[in-house]
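Input chain follows. Return structure tokens only.
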Amino acid sequence: MEYLIIFEKNKQGHYGAYVPDLPGCVSIGDTLEEAKQNIKAALELHLEGMKMEGYIIPNPSATADFVTV
């Protein structure tokens, strides 16, 4: 499955990442590449934990787009 990941750069230049379809699945990184690696690991652990606890894994449904103003 492919989940949408949102990356946000903070004032210090670090990146936060989260998965809109999976509340609580978040990570950070000093660089965008590190944030990508970390959120992938966090996503795998999050899904594994949900399975172990008997939760239903939601199908990806979040989308993103750009609007020009």
